[in-house]
Amino acid sequence: MATTSAAYYVDRMTVGDIAEVIDIERQSFSLPWPSNAYKRELQDNRTAHYIVVRRHDPSQSSQAHAAPKKERRDESRGLFSFLRALTPAQQLPQHEGPPTVFAYAGLWLMVDEAHITTIAVRPEYRGKGLGELILCGLVDTSLEIGARLMTLEVRISNSVAQNLYLKYGFKQSGLRRRYYSDNNEDALIMTAEAINAPVFLNNYRLLKSSLLRKLG
Question: 20, 153, 168, 185: which is the annotated catalytic residue?
Answer without folding.
Answer: 153
